[in-house]
User: Fold Flavin reductase like domain-containing protein from Herbinix hemicellulosilytica.
Amino acid sequence: MEKISVSPQNNFCPQTLFMYGTYREDGTPNFGLFCWFSYFWDGELGVMACIGGEKLTKDRIRETKVFSANLVTESMLPIADYLGNNEGYNKEKMNIPLETERGAVLNVPVLKDSPWVFELEVFQSISFNGSDVFLCKIRNTLVAKELKDNSIDVDERLRMAAPVTWIGEGQYYTLNHETLGKTGNWKDLYGKNKV
Assistant:
């Protein structure tokens, strides 16, 4: 495979989509679509979320220090795309049919249709030129019961979750739900490592 040098970019590095939920100052829910989301370890699993540009979602996270991260599924994609392509500063944005409820632990809006939701509390933020990174404690995780049912094959549970990914090329993608192998299947590929 011949390689070429390019400018800094993360194309073809799949990122799972989440809708971040906050409450506006008037108490109504606000959601935006984001994918710069990952994890870290600091004695327990935490979340790091980066938001570029100026957005109502970022304003509300800075103000309240809490938000929800709702996994986007294939069936949720049309509403997620709408929410991600309309500014939160537009007061009419959220005048849509969207079923939400309050988080189980934090005062954050949660999407009823999302099968995996993190309730997050920011404990540290880092501001950069054009973006902010929020380091968060996971205060609660709301999960569709069937996704934790080990009697259901993991491939089937992934099909049920149906997460949507983004690769930075202007297209949304589904996972093909096809198992490639298990962790450790190739640990002896080159024989035993000798010390």
